[in-house]
Design brief:
By secondary structure, the protein is an alpha/beta fold. Helices cover 35% and strands 19% of the residues. The strands form 8 sheets. Strands 11, 12, 13, 14, 15, 17 and 20 form a 7-stranded antiparallel beta sheet that branches.
Length: 856
């Protein structure tokens, strides 16, 4: 087996090992699971999956020798209750493992009875209500499998194959409407029908192959990273499984415009599978939802159903290796039409910035509404209120939606146009009690990160109406809703409410806008703009937490991960890579840096560098300077913390011609000190065993070559004040014999660092004028409200705006400053530096940063 096929088999084998441990020891299913009976379909599917594992060469799972026991599990299958999909799975499993001759008489009786699906065959013979069209193919598959099992043609097989053949021949587009009248539903069941018929494709005639080829070509444009079909019913994890199934069929038969593109999509889908399972069991019902008919009573059956699909795909993929790269999601802007009349279709839009589909058809529930579907971007509740479409409330009416047959559907340079000519409650035909006459004409267009919809609504004059629009968001992808005119806005917290669970996750926030109207007409435009997706190289650093925290709900910020293998794929879908300290992320080796930059550029992300340092603090050699120079040349935007820093940086490095520069200050470290505002000086002195002092100075932060700590010690030693105490953190080897000077080494824990600031009268910032661009210690002074005694370094002068006490440059300058310090001077400096907190508020600075990123 190739890597791709082997990965699928291994995934299922490991999943079934966990399944046995947590659910079915020895693969003996319990009578019930989480309060629900374990039904016949689940028992049949367990047999099916174990048989497919054996066929894939897996002989033992969870300590069970499969070849000796699988067929014994037939005794657990209640044959009389087995129908439909389960029937052919039992029959095919027995045939796959050697046929009836391997069974005891009792086992053979079970296998034969389970394979016949009599109720489905009878239901298809009735005029009304008939099962959905996909069951015509299911019935043919059951009878075909039964014939292989029995070694003869069963009654009804020829007729069933004829019905299936007629179904595939009835469509010029390849797509099959799987809804009952009066509804129209083109969905995941179209490719599923082709896959179901594949074992007897030769009996289907040329229509099967031609139709499947057209459908796969359409799915090449319609597919999303989350699945081949992401609207309608039976989606979620089944969408991802369909990607793998369609990809396998495309590769095996050479169908579609780019089978290799499907191979890359299958590879990505296999990467995503673990997120849908825990302990071998599907998680499609946990913190998200499945369709009601696939609810928690069918949790085990859905688990085994997906495992079976994966194993069938693995068999087809044995000759195909894995693939990678982002080119398997090319741009698309196409209306895929499903019917001959052109009244049903799906608009698919894919760009670097947005990826979604808008299905347009007359579906029986909200999964078929003309709303954007893009898992992780545009998500919708499975059983909750309709979102991203206008709603209408009349006096005493339920919520009404655009309804009835699609009156107009087309895509041109202006965008997608959709028109309905009635209003009705969700899932009701346009001739019920609450049907209201009217019209909705909408034009959808996408540009950049924005989807814009222009609405023209009519609903009868002379009655008070409220037009509403609700937009749901997931926690990981903020959306910005704007409307023209503005309307009445409300934002609602829906986190944890099951009604708002979608197939892929939970809707945690709903933005709502309403327009009261009595004229019977309303025109408005609404826009959804996707929040930036930012990958941070230092997401856990205090600076990053303070900067990104205020952006919650406005941008999606994730970790960039390490800079090694897989970086380009990991950055796929990210807008901005935000670099802070390159040496912490990718090191300073110039060759490695060049390779990392190539992979970043291959991902087509914007590179933003907040340039904290001129060179790395701990490496000031030629290699580190060359590495920094490479980042400077590659950056699309460089954020400096001061005009001084910008000037020094641009004098040091040759930036790219395309590089933009912006100055956004560092924020004040105010919040970390809020827990210690009530702490007293005496408490800290007792904790630290410091003697009382009228004037306590300190040098805080890491010792740096650019920080003249020795001069501060000499200044205190030379000053005439006996009431001064200096606490200084210095490099090993630094010392003083003066009892007024306490020299410390090593790291000070964060909590202790913050508490000690309450016992300092001032912080000395003895930075030289060369070497650094900025220091975070001045923002500790600002946030804690501690006066700063500063050198003449340009950065400090610009940031403090006169709020610091400037001493000059030399030790004697500082000694004179210390001798002349008064309580009044310190009090004024304290008030001045505290007043700067508002100007260096992280919320305002975060918004300025986001604006700069959005302008790229």
């Amino acid at each position: 087996m190739t890597d791709l096929s082997a990965r699928l088999v291994r995934f299922v084998a490991e999943g079934m090992d966990a399944f046995a441990a947590r659910v079915a020891p020895g693969f003996r299913l319990p009578a019930s699971y989480a309060g629900h009976p374990v039904d016949a379909a689940t028992r049949a599917d367990l047999l099916y999956v174990l048989g497919l594992l054996l066929d894939a060469g897996v002989t033992e799972v969870a300590g069970v020798a499969l070849d000796r026991v699988v067929l014994n599990f037939l005794s657990d299958v209640p044959a009389a209750a087995v129908e439909g999909f389960s029937s052919y799975r039992v029959a095919e499993t027995v045939s796959r493992l050697g046929g009836l001759s391997r069974l005891t008489a009792e086992q053979a009786a079970v296998a034969l009875a389970a394979s016949r699906s009599p109720r489905l065959v009878a239901a298809l013979a009735e005029d009304t209500p008939r099962p959905r069209r996909n069951f015509l193919v299911v019935s043919a598959r059951c009878l075909w499998a039964q014939g292989h099992l029995e070694g003869r043609e069963p009654a009804g097989l020829s007729e069933a194959l004829g019905h299936a053949r007629a179904l595939f021949s009835s469509t010029s587009t390849g797509w099959i409407n799987d809804a009952r009248e009066p509804w129209t539903q083109y969905d995941i069941y179209t490719p599923d029908m082709y896959l179901l018929a594949e074992p007897f494709a030769a009996a289907m005639g040329p229509a099967w192959l031609a139709g499947f080829a057209r459908v796969i070509a359409d799915l090449d444009d319609l597919a999303q990273p989350a699945g081949a079909v992401v609207w309608g019913r039976s989606i979620g994890v089944l969408s991802l499984a369909m990607t793998i199934e369609v990809g396998a069929a495309s590769l095996r038969r050479g169908l579609g415009p780019s089978p290799d593109r499907w191979r890359a999509r299958v590879t990505q889908a296999v990467d995503d599978l673990p997120g849908w399972f825990s302990g071998g069991v599907i998680t499609a019902h946990q913190h998200r939802a499945s369709d009601p008919y696939r609810g928690t009573p069918r949790r085990l059956q859905l688990t085994l159903d997906v495992y079976g699909k994966l194993l069938l795909a693995a068999k087809a993929l044995r000759d195909y290796p894995q693939a990678s790269g982002a080119s398997h999601w090319p741009a698309a802007n196409r209306l895929v039409v499903f019917d001959d009349e052109g009244s049903s279709g799906t608009w698919t839009y894919r760009s670097r910035d947005l990826s979604f589909v808008v299905p347009v058809m007359r579906g029986s529930f909200s999964g078929y509404l003309p709303v954007p579907y893009g898992p992780g971007l545009f998500d919708h509740a499975v059983a909750g209120p309709a979102t991203m479409i206008p709603t209408l409330l009349l006096a005493n009416s339920p919520m009404l939606l655009p309804a009835g047959p699609v009156a107009n559907l087309g895509l041109d340079d202006r965008g997608l146009t959709v028109e309905h000519r009635a209003w009705a409650p969700p899932g009701e035909p346009a001739d019920g009690r609450w049907t209201a006459p009217g019209r909705r004409s909408a034009t959808y267009r996408a540009y950049g990160r924005t989807l814009e919809v222009r609405e023209e609504l009519e609903f009868g004059a002379g009655q008070q109406a409220v037009v509403g629009l609700a937009v749901g968001e997931t926690a990981g992808q903020p959306l910005r809703l704007s409307t023209d005119p503005p309307g009445s806005r409300t934002t609602i917290d829906t986190e944890g409410i099951p009604e708002w669970f979608g197939h892929w996750g939970a809707i945690t926030r709903v933005q709502q806008v309403e327009f009261p109207c009595s004229s019977g007409r309303l025109a408005f435009t609404w826009r959804l703009t996707r929040g930036l997706r930012i990958a941070s190289t230092d997401i856990d650093h205090a600076y990053s937490r303070a900067l990104y925290g205020p952006l919650a709900g406005e941008a999606s910020v994730v970790s960039a991960g390490d800079s090694g293998v897989g970086l380009t794929d990991r950055l796929d879908g990210v807008d901005v890579l935000h670099l802070a300290w390159p040496e912490r992320w990718s090191g300073v080796d110039p060759e490695i840096t060049a390779d990392v930059i190539r992979r970043v550029k291959a991902a087509r992300v914007r590179l933003v560098w907040t340039m904290h340092n001129r060179v790395p603090h701990r490496r000031k050699d030629r290699a580190s300077a060359e590495s920094y120079a490479q980042w400077a040349s590659a950056a699309d935007l460089v954020i400096h913390h001061s005009e001084y820093g910008r000037r020094v940086a641009t004098q040091t490095y040759a930036y790219g011609m395309h590089t933009r520069h912006v100055v956004i200050p560092h924020g004040a470290w105010t919040a970390p000190y809020d827990d210690y505002r009530s702490l007293t000086r005496t408490q800290v002195e007792q904790e630290e065993a410091w003697p009382a002092a009228d004037l306590r100075l300190a040098v805080i932060g890491q010792p740096r070559a650019e920080k003249d700590i020795r001069s501060v010690i000499e200044a205190v030693e030379a000053c005439g004040r006996r009431d001064v105490q200096l606490v200084v953190r210095a490099a090993p080897g630094t010392s003083s014999q003066d009892p007024r000077v306490t020299v410390e080494y090593g790291h000070v824990p964060e909590r202790r660092f913050h508490r000690r600031m309450k016992a300092y009268d001032a912080i000395v910032l003895p930075f030289t004028s060369e070497g650094m661009l900025a220091t975070g210690t001045v923002f500790d002074c600002m946030g804690s409200g501690t006066p700063a005694i500063t050198s003449g370094w340009g950065f400090l002068g610009e940031v403090l705006r006169g709020a610091g006490i400037r001493y000059g440059r030399t030790a004697s300058d500082l000694a004179a400053c210390i001798d002349s310090l008064t309580e009044g001077q310190l009090a004024r400096a304290c008030a001045a530096i505290t007043a700067l907190q508002a100007d260096y508020d992280w919320t305002a600075l975060a918004r300025r940063t986001l604006e700069a990123l959005e302008q790229l």
